[in-house]
Amino acid sequence: MIDKVFNKSIKKQFEFDEEVASVFDDMLNRSVPYYKEMQRLTINFALNFLEKDYKVFDLGCSTASTLIELGKHCNKKLNLIGIDNSQAMLNRASNKAKAFGVDIDFICGDIHDVDLSNANLIISNYTLQFIRPLQREKLIKKIYDSLEKKGVFIFSEKVISSNNVLNKQCIDEYYEFKKTQGYSEFEISQKREALENVLIPYTEDENKKMIKDAGFTHCETLFKWVNFATFIAIKE
């Protein structure tokens, strides 16, 4: 379905409800620059670290697109687990996984509470930015502690610039991108208002510092387009 969630006046903050879930795949592809490329890089790098029966978690898996693609491209049996606190998202994820013949276990719950132990790979695409800063740092520490040795954490985030002039230029460039995807200025402004104080991005350096403070010795930027970035960290 085509995303028309914000072509009307908003009455609440952004949430991953049934209305959003019904158009979420279209929303992602039209709202996140180079989303498919980011997903392809995530999968390609992940495949280098995966062995048979490895445990893979996707935090905030939404409609499970990344786990499905990973399952389709990996020639080894994996234990794929998708976690999301939106049952509407997981209902669609479950139907998609069945349609593509990919075996995924889904958990509806708070990622702060779900057991991630013995993980070999943890993925988090545009999820951390919706978590309050203090809780975000605790979650990263939990991710580090849950990963096995040589375990990998791959995550994507919307980022901001520490330079106010550049940050405004990045935002303007992003809004121009959204216009090319068919979103009107009204839709863009409505979504911006709905996301205010809901989506809290860090700078690229702040993301890397958070990762290293949790125990990871290295964090590499795999991909960046203006104010969107994908990172990888390995537990030594």
From TrEMBL:
Q: What is this protein called?
A: Carboxy-S-adenosyl-L-methionine synthase
Instruction: Supply the source organism's classification.
Output: Bacteria, Pseudomonadati, Campylobacterota, Epsilonproteobacteria, Campylobacterales
Residues covered by the Methyltransferase domain: 56-151
User: What is one Pfam family matched by this protein?
Assistant: Methyltransf_25
Query: Keywords on this record?
Result: Methyltransferase, S-adenosyl-L-methionine, Transferase
What the entry lists under InterPro entries is as follows: CmoA, Methyltransf_25, SAM-dependent_MTases_sf
Which reactions appear under catalytic activity for this entry?
A: prephenate + S-adenosyl-L-methionine = carboxy-S-adenosyl-L-methionine + 3-phenylpyruvate + H2O
Which function does this protein serve? Catalyzes the conversion of S-adenosyl-L-methionine (SAM) to carboxy-S-adenosyl-L-methionine (Cx-SAM).
The answer to whether keyword Nucleotidyltransferase applies is: no
* GO BP term (any one): tRNA wobble uridine modification
Q: What is its EC number?
A: 2.1.3.-
The UniProt family comment states:
Belongs to the class I-like SAM-binding methyltransferase superfamily. Cx-SAM synthase family.
Molecular function in Gene Ontology? carboxyl- or carbamoyltransferase activity; methyltransferase activity; S-adenosyl-L-methionine binding
The record lists S-adenosyl-L-methionine as bound by Y35, G60, C61, S62, D84, N85, D110, I111, N125, R192
The first-level EC class reads transferase
